[in-house]
Amino acid sequence: MATTPATSRAISVEINGTTYEREVPASRLLVHFLRDDLDLTGTHVGCDTGSCGACTVLVNGQAVKSCTLLAVQADGAAVRTVEGLASEDGDLTALQQSFSDHHALQCGYCTPGMLMSATALLERNPQPSEDDVKIALQGNICRCTGYWNIIDAVVAAGKGGAA
Amino acid sequence: MTAVEIEPGTLQKGAAIGQSVPRKEDKRLVQGQGVFVDDVKRHGMGYLHFVRSPYAHAKIGSVDVSAALELPGVYGTLTGDEVAILTDPFFQISSPPGAHVKDYALAVGKVRYLGEPVVAVVAETRELARDAAELVSVDYEPLEAVVDARTALAAEAPLLHEECGTNMSWEGVYEWGDLDAAFAEADHVVKIGELHFHRFNSTPLETDGALVEYNRGVGQWTIHTNNQFPGFAGIMMGPALRVGIDKLRFVTQDIGGGFGNKITTHPQLVAACLLARKLRRAIQWTEWRTDFHQSMSHGNERWFQDTEVAVKADGTLLGFRTKAIDDAGAYLRYEPLGGVIWAQVAAGLYKWRNIRLEFTQAMTNKAPVSPNRGYSRMQQLWFTERVIDIVAQELGFDPVEIRKRNYVQPEDMPYETPNGCVYDSGDYPRVLDLALELVGYGSIEERRREAAARGKLLGVGIGSTLDSGTNNFAQSRLINPELQFSGNNEVATVKLDLFGEVIVTLGTTPQGQGHETTAAQVVADIIGCSVDQVHVRAGHDTYWNSHAGFSGTYASQFAVTGLGAVKGASDMLAGQMKQLASMVLQCAPDDIELGEGFARIKGVPEAALPFMALGAIVNMNNAGFPEDPPTLNCRYVYRPPFELPDLERKFGNLTLTYATQIHACVVEIDRETGVTEIVDYAAVDDCGTRINPRIVEGQVMGATAHAIGAALWETFAYDDEGNLLTPNFYDYHVPHALDMPPLKTAAIESPSPFTPLGTKGMGEGGGGGIHCICAAIQDALRAAGGAIVSDSHNPYHRVWELLRDPEATRANVEVVSR
After folding, report:
1. Would B555 be classed as within a structural domain?
2. A92/B33 Cβ within 8 A
3. The domain that contains B495 carries what CATH number?
4. Residues of chain B neighbouring A142 (CB-CB closer than 8 A)
5. d(CA B261, CA B716)
6. Could you tell me the pTM of the whole model?
7. What are phi and psi of A160, to 5 degrees?
């Protein structure tokens, strides 16, 4: 006799410093857990093949595409999303400010994923070169900017925000 | 090496206009606080998932949704049979035979492309809706598919729409000038057998979607959506749903890219509307990426056959004749408007006066085409640029010199083209010189030798392009004389509110173009305040009453129509503020000046009223006002000056402005593999007065990236059975950060004499990139057999074929000289 598989599970995830305990369906992707269950809609979905990077978040400090992870796989993890970058009173990080200063966004849909990939890069390499940035952002698609201003923005943020 | 050079603005226009002020949109977007359509939620909403056709062409037999409905958490379904009862087919733009196409929100009776929505399923969660869709059983009887527009036109081809009796949706012959005289005068006739512009689109990162609510009591739908042309969606949806336009409220906020691809979502929106009414709950629909690739808004694929070009011995181009075959895909969602839109740029940038183009559009078992950045003009401009470079190569002219000889010159402006379009302003030779300088054209032969020593073939190419903007919708009558569209319009409101807030609403639906910022810049300069003081509401809402029939963001027009409306409303408000201040300060309105947030008497700085006082007086302190008091709430409809075209001659002004973009690039080709690397790239733009140069440059860059992607990697390729081979970002490679070549940009400004601010619409000139990459590849291959580039898409394997067998491509071209 086959046993009935569990179709949901209780998980506990720390997101931007807050711990969330939820029962989630086994098939729910982390990105949909963030967006649909927790209403953290800054993390976006741009494809269904793990190609575009709009859903990039930091899981235990690593940049991860949250559409390639089931929510149950994030059980016990510390997740950081774009909502966790600026301070409570809205002070932007140097990287966020640099994106605006360099016109590194147009529609803004890829921006959260770009910011999270770049945040992970800057945390491990505070002064990245242009090539470092291109490699770090290789998993993030932007259809508006052509990347040039994004690369400039990240390099500048590494130099303390100077243009 | 992403150094970007910008020539300083040639005009100083105002405190805000002409300045690269930071974007007002950015603060929310960098914090993930934008509101995109999938972010909108309602209590108890159901997620919609479409069951899609696995066949390119098939008859639909029985449809069984019972298993899906039995699944707990499934709220309901919608089938094609229901849709056929509850709605009328969408209005068709075409004259016959295309007019006979029956197009519904879901497939009725037949499917005509792979991915066509057949059944809609609504469930409690996204996952459940998708699982339930798997349980829907549809019987299909597969039919032979036709995927090539050329064979679709053959008498024996399988028929998509039986009602039409043919796969030809529309055809028209355009002829201007005297072709016989031109060819009689020609010293050389260059004949080109076939050129092909491939199928791709801009693949915005956010797919299509909506959150639809139905208010049963008033019979009205509220459609939160990312549709970029609500005016058009309303025209399509109202009659289909058998309701007046007031029953459709469209609301947008942030849209994750559009590029024209989000214009024709009306079928899916109608399905969502029907389900919201049927299931008595809000319906959430967000397309999956694969769904988007399979079904939405592919760009027009086009062949140019039997082209003949009349050329004089000195390189003067007299004219051309060609036959264009356009592939519309399975349904005419915006088509066959592409059959006339190209005529805005029939002549490209050149002075040839004799043009004949026979346009035939075919329907095929592929996804429907719809506008895509550079819609229909990009194909024509690519054709003209290909012609120039093939003529230059075959007759031994320098590609720069033949362009300069034949370009419309600055002193010719405004220039009336052979078909009555008016190029408003521009300096093409200067823009070309700037582009060439930026790619180091002067030392190109030296670099060619240096590259050859490394085993590389180096080539340089030019792509001249026009970005025609602000359509005269009367051109639709060239497609169907019965249509009652003409002109264009856009709306804005500007008001001074109670506490002196300056509030602006737009009719447009921006997708990253920064309308909140540029509109604020215009308002600030006119009413005398800072950009920060101006609050532009994000997005579009039909309830604001700041829209008209053509409202939306498409076809390179915001800087003209949108900002024209903003300027008009701001001028009205400024006049009213002066009137009110003069009443209070007891002087003549002309004695009042507006500045720094005050209305004050000129030369008497202490006699000043802050904006807050003006707002408060009108709104809450108005006893004793005259009979016609200022309202400080001004609505303006901008309407460009257009006439009806001459339908008989297909002659008239089809669009108000013509921005110029000229791109140049240097490529290196690996002889062994055909891999093409862009080593230098420049894009030079002239879109008249720039309100915010940085935003303009951002558009130039983004359009360039689209062009590079299309030229080298992006294609919607189908197999013979109509299976899409590139249905996601794995197979459909869009440029990534590492793919981008170094880019240089520059700009000049030739203000439009026809627009309120001297601006021109822009953002769609990126086709220049496709043109220049094709040209550079052909130039590089001159040293390896002289292959002719006859396709807009040249991935490394095609370049390798050009290297391997140049003679096969040269057979495509023949020169007859006197």
Report:
1. yes
2. no
3. 3.30.365.10
4. 205
5. 14
6. 0.96
7. 85, 20
